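Q: Focus on the chain.
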Amino acid sequence: MKKILLSSLLLAALAISSCSKDDDGGTPEPVATCNDGILNGDETAVDCGGSCEPCEIAAEKDGIIAGQDDPDLDPEDLKGDVTANVCLTSDTVWTLNGPLSVKNGATLCIEPGTVIRATAGGTDVYVAIEQGAKIDARGTANSPITFTSNAGNPRSGDWGGILIIGKAPISGGGTATTEVVNLTYGGTDASDNSGVMTYVQALYTGARINGDKEFNGITFYGVGNATVVENVGVFFGDDDAFEWFGGTVNVRNAIAVNIKDDMFDWTQGWTGTATNLYGLREASYTAITEDPRGIEGDGNLDGQNPGDSGQSNPTINGLVLINGAPVSMADMIKVRRGSGLTLTNGYVAFANENAEASDFIDLLDGAGDANGANINMSLVGDAASGLDITDIKSVSGATINVTEGTTPTVDRNIFNWTGYSFE
């Protein structure tokens, strides 16, 4: 708890004011003393019967975190608007009890090895790095940063997730409002910098506000390419693991495990580069939404603005999508609504011995309002796993090469830092 210490000068002034004789030479009225060391409104800072010692005033919480010693920076009740540079230290476990919104000009530092446990059951529990703010979360392979649920029996959707919000371009230009918490994103600065996230994992995210609005694990809203995102993981998410709403941010080494909806999703003009994406559903995983996919790529927001300029056209170098679950996915890869994609070193497989090839509706669907001229894919389909590598819907102008093979194109060992044990 932050406390304010009255200065010696102020104490001296209080002592003179409270202890001096009246003008008529009378005896001063007795004053209360701060015998318990805490001023409560009925006490003064001075004991006229003895030495005048400083007393401490307890500061009250106001929902604003204005410094490292602010009472709102409370490990047992973390929430509020961050308006100054503060740090979550690794020497304690932090309990996130509500929105933690980092405001323009402020930086949220998170030390390596820090654990943040989010209160379960709330759509109002999340972390947002707003436009002009930064996150400085530099975990290491030996000391990753972990966001998770504080429930005794954690489940997907226990809490919201992490929102990074920048000023990079989105399709159609201008700005827009985030899907879940009504914050502004987008702009004209392709090199906008929202900070650093390395060796960060988020578990049990994806709280749902309603059927149309839900949090993802980590969401990038108009994030610029000066932002560093490397070695990140989302596990047991109730909606998408990673989603990009426009922007130019690049991502390296991202893993998504047991995600109820899409593993990797983009829309509204994302043009960054992703290197080494790894999506996996375990054999025991049975949760599912209406149309889960490994990749779902849209050019503009939900296909509402097909004439927008600056539609999505990302590059992916290194992709593994494995569905080991006994339930089907709508598509392993779907690129639509004006989105382009350049994909190299992709690998797609089914890994459940009880499954049939029909459990994939589509290996690759590039026909849904896609911009075929901007689709160029090269991937390996693991037919030995039961995958039908001929199940492809394409459009004129797209270049799609699928060859048969059994060797994943991304080394799963690069995700050992998460502690996840691959089956």
About this structure: The two ends are 46 Å apart (CA to CA). Residues 8-19 form the longest helix (12 residues). The CA atoms of residues 141 and 417 lie 5 Å apart. Residues 1-25, 27-52 have pLDDT under 50 and may be disordered.
